[in-house]
Amino acid sequence: RLALNDDLSIGRGGRSIYDYSGSSGSGAVILDDCNFHESVHLDGFDVDRTLSLVPPDGEFPVMNYRITQEFKPPFRINAWIEQAGPLKAEVILKIRAEYASSITANTILVQMPLPTYTTRVSFELEPGAVGQVTDFKESNKRLEWGLKKIVGGSEHTLRAKLTFSQESHGNITKEAGPVSMNFTIPMYNASRLQVKYLQIA
Fold first, then answer.
1. Whole-prediction pTM
2. Same CATH fold assignment for domains 2-71+188-198 and 75-184
3. What is the pLDDT of residue 66?
4. Closest CA to 86 of 161, 159, 164, 160
5. Burial of 10 (0-12, 13-18, 19+ CB in 10 A)
6. How many CB atoms neighbour CB 182 within 10 A?
7. pLDDT less than 50: residues of the chain
8. Alpha helices of 28-185 — where are they, by DSSP H?
9. Are 1 and 54 within 8 A, CB to CB?
10. Which GO terms describe its cellular component (predicted)?
11. CATH T-level topology, domain 75-184
12. Among residues 29, 27, 28, 8, which one has the least CA distance to residue 18?
């Protein structure tokens, strides 16, 4: 037996056959849709948000869900690119972790496409930076910044000086970006969907 949030609603606006009377508040967790493993019994789900199941052998997903309501992203990323001369520019990337200091993200990779006429990139990390690597992928003109871990509440900055083979003629901001980021955050749940308790009989 497994219990989920009391304020959980399924369906847009929280209205569905599984609507719960306490779910109309602004803090409610609203799933657009979901489906359950065939071993899950939903007899008590519309009453107290509990699932009963006889699990099969091995690992399996109890529930798959989709959510589109607004949520606070775990990171805030700011990117600036400025001309530093006829054939030069500077990129500044700043990452701030918006989650609690008790949580740590790992295996972070930040990528940013650069203008096609970029020929060289020199990187400058913060003083004392540990577990960070930088690279310029010349074949596809992409900046890469890898961080081994990011603790919640911390900020990290990267500066990159670009050298061009031709003048940008003011198009530099149109030809760089967008910034993308891949990461893993164990024990972090942006949807706020929680397992309140698990009873094994």
1. 0.72
2. yes
3. 87
4. 164
5. buried
6. 10
7. 14-26
8. 45-48, 172-175
9. no
10. clathrin adaptor complex; endomembrane system
11. Immunoglobulin-like (2.60.40)
12. 8
Strands 132-137 and 75-85: unpaired
Q: What amino acid occupies position 183?
A: F
Convert the pLDDT of each residue in 123-153 to its tens digit. Answer: 999 998 999 999 999 999 999 999 999 999 9
Residues whose CB falls within 8 Å of the CB of residue 30, separated by 6 or more in sequence, listed in order = 8, 9, 10, 11, 12, 13, 14, 23, 67, 69
Q: State the sign of the Cα–Cα–Cα–Cα dihedral 182, 188, 194, 197.
A: positive
- Neighbour count for residue 156 (Cβ, 10 Å): 18
- Residue 32 phi/psi, 5-degree rounding, is -65, -45
Contact 162, 91 (CB under 8 A): yes
Q: What is the CATH number of domain 2-71+188-198?
A: 2.60.40.1170
